[in-house]
Write a structure and sequence with these properties.
Rossmann fold; five-stranded parallel beta sheet; ATP-binding; D-amino Acid Aminotransferase, Chain A, domain 1; metal ion binding; alpha+beta; fatty acid metabolism; binds adenosine-5'-diphosphate
């Protein structure tokens, strides 16, 4: 087992990883940017080392500085968390070259799955259903136009290197296709430094269903059931649940089998997620694989009683997964609400600033993963997520009532948050009846723009 792990991240996920390491008896090194000097992860780790200025490209994305910090502190592994360098094949290779173990997949897995168009090809070859769409990528508007015509409207234009819900455009009408394609392409060039695009059929009002995978070096690949991440704002997840309680056993088995097939097709090792869209007729389609731990991993941890970060660390250290598919039992229902520092009355714009008062809810079945405290100054530089409220209930109903209680108890003053927006969702009739899909917020909630 590793003796010391450097955590190349910040915020709640850095704390989450430090906690897992402590329980495994592994020493931890935090890295931080100059503006994160007072961040909790810096205080909670055994050692901390500054890796540059606030700007992520000079600190949390600075591979040289992170690798140097690993040498200086004699850490034997790096946990990248999510975001930042977690899905960078270049970073994975750099770690390999320096003989530092990266707690995550290999460079080739990230490369194969990180390019959405390549991932589609791999899935088609493996017999995993994908959304009908273009075979490869294209930068040519006329070629794309013809493809869209073949696929049939509505279509979704996606950036091959896109992520985080960005770089996508839905087109309902062929008249405006070329204009949208060009806009999406130039957005992609700026955001991802890659303007290769591909086209998919736009599935109307699907559920976003994803399967958690764990795979070790010895060919054991297991899934830990699904998460329903249909409550999204502009293709970004806001509420996640596990399991998806409208799904029957046979569909769960079918989708689980496909998720395993997808992971095995690339010889995947580590924790990962296979994402699908599920349409109204129970057809499901692979959309992408995330080759990292995800924000919403706690809902799966709660219903399976498996610590995903610990498993990920053990797998990276060369251990065998010591349970099998039959051992995975789903118990109860878990829900996560992502609390962001943003102003819901002003188009959800980020609301950085100093937290004056912070009261943390508690009680049975409640888990709060957060890096904030009273007096903490949220910098404008990073992601606006400040807390994850996670609850467990014996069934969906109990979990919802518990989450409502938690949303009532929590106090965060000094900044704006989306807490009231979550309250509204949890009071919505359709949400309560589990009649949700990825268009829920746009159709049910938004009076935003
Ligand atoms: P990202 O990598 O940016 O998160 P994804 O491919 O995972 O992008 O898609 C994010 C979300 O966008 C999905 O959960 C879904 O809501 C929507 N989406 C993506 N592809 C389609 C599609 N073909 N049809 C309908 N919605 C889609």
């Amino acid at each position: 087992m590793f003796k010391k792990i450097l955590i190349a991240n910040r915020g709640e996920i850095a704390l989450r990883i430090i906690r897992a390491c402590k329980e495994l008896g592994i020493k931890t090194v935090a890295v931080y940017s100059e503006i994160d000097r007072d961040a909790l992860h810096v205080h909670m780790a055994d050692e901390a080392i500054c890796i540059g200025p606030g700007n992520s490209s000079k600190s949390y994305l600075n591979m040289n500085n992170i690798i140097s910090a690993t040498w200086v502190t004699s850490a034997d592994a790096i946990h990248p968390g999510y975001g930042f360098l977690s899905e960078s094949p270049t970073f994975a290779r750099a770690c390999e070259e320096q003989e530092i173990k990266l707690i995550g997949p290999k460079e080739e897995h990230i490369r194969k799955m990180g390019n959405k168009s390549e991932a589609r090809k791999t899935m088609i070859a493996a017999g995993v259903p994908v959304v009908p769409g273009s075979e490869g990528d294209t930068k040519d508007a006329n070629e794309a136009f013809e493809l869209a015509d073949k696929i049939g409207y509505p279509v979704i234009i996606k950036a091959v290197s896109g992520g985080g819900g960005r770089g996508m455009r839905i087109v309902y009408d062929k008249e405006v296709f070329i204009k949208n394609f060009q806009m999406a392409k130039s957005e992609a060039a700026i955001a991802f430094n890659d303007d290769a695009m591909y086209i998919e059929k736009y599935i109307e009002e699907p559920r976003h269903i994803e399967f958690q995978i764990l795979a070790d070096e010895y060919g054991n690949t297991i899934h830990l059931g699904e998460r329903d991440c249909s409550i999204q704002r502009r293709n970004q997840k806001m509420i996640e649940e596990a399991p998806c309680s409208i799904m029957d056993t046979s569909l769960r088995e079918k989708m689980g089998e496909m998720a395993l097939k997808a992971a095995k097709a690339v010889g995947y090792v580590s924790a990962g997620t296979i994402e699908f869209l599920l349409d109204k007729h129970n057809n499901f389609y692979f959309i992408e694989m995330n080759t990292r731990i995800q924000v919403e991993h706690p809902v799966t941890e709660w219903i399976t009683n498996i610590d995903l970060i610990k498993e990920q660390i053990k797998i990276a250290a060369g251990e065998k997964i010591n349970f099998n598919q039959q051992d995975i039992k789903i118990n109860g229902h878990a829900i996560e609400c992502r609390i962001n520092a943003e102003d819901i009355h002003h188009n959800f714009r980020p609301s950085p600033g100093t937290i004056e008062e912070y009261f943390v809810p508690g009680g049975n079945g409640v888990r709060i993963d957060s890096h904030i405290y009273s007096g903490y100054k949220i910098p404008p530089t990073y992601d606006s997520m400040i807390a994850k409220l996670i609850v467990w209930g014996r069934d969906r109903n109990e979990a919802i009532n518990r989450m409502k209680r938690v949303l009532d108890e929590i106090i965060i003053t000094g900044i704006h948050t989306n807490i009231d927006f979550h309250r509204e969702i949890l009071d919505n009739e359709k949400f309560l009846k589990n009649k949700i899909n990825t268009a829920f917020i746009a159709t049910e909630m938004i009076k935003e723009n």
